[in-house]
Structures
1.
Amino acid sequence: MTPQQFRDARTKLGLSARQLGLVLGFGADPGRIVRAYEAGDYAVSGPVRLGMRYLLKHGLDREARVTAGIEQPRKAKGELVSAP
């Protein structure tokens, strides 16, 4: 996967660099890591490539949308929930 393909996939998913980094589980400063992939500073590794293919094929499930901050977590009756 080339840097341009990576960027195009993120755009198709409608995610910011930070949101995609959170969904893919990048630790500290997830947006910076995604931008580095897009700039070609890092080669897109096999696990990241597979994650992107999965997201493109299946979309984001609810858990991924909550992780990315797109949706708020659901509260169970009487439960306090904090966003990630």
2.
Amino acid sequence: MESVSDLSRAKRISQAVVKKGIKLFLAGDAKLEKTTDSAIYFRVSSKNTHEVVMRLRPRKWSCDCTYFSLKVKPCSHIVSAMLLLEKRR
């Protein structure tokens, strides 16, 4: 599984996004909603509440926020969900 540090090293994600994602994670704003055979669903609260989904096959992250929609790059909501998942393992 690709980690936040892997994404950062590969320059697929900015340090500002990583910092904001860490802040959301540490504040407890990322919650695991449900797990199915094909995906894991998270709810992440910032100014708004966003749904983050990690599809399992193929492994692919998505978020319903504007940043992800426009940039198609991991956002702070995805970072916070990734950190939550790493913590749970």
3.
Amino acid sequence: MIELALLALIVVALVAVFAAVSVLLLVVKAILWIVLLPLRVLFALVFIPLLLLKFVFGGVMLLVAAPILVIVGIVGVLVTILAVAIPLLPLLFAGFLVWLVYRLATGSPAAV
């Protein structure tokens, strides 16, 4: 029973150490955030126009590339449909032959 109490005491001590280290790291993070805040604001002021320029160029490139991508997509869909349909042609032909034999064997109804 004493071993269980000792184990519980060790666990409590480890949780306390973890809590202390977490609080210490939180304080260090807060201090670094406050110290580096002016640099973050400066970088934001410098990079916002560059990001806007990036979005403008990206939009222009999208307008140029979109028709090409649409054509490539349509060709890809057609190729995929053909790749699936061509191996099924012998089955379609066999079904046609069965239908033709059935049609010839039963005869067509007389016209009224």
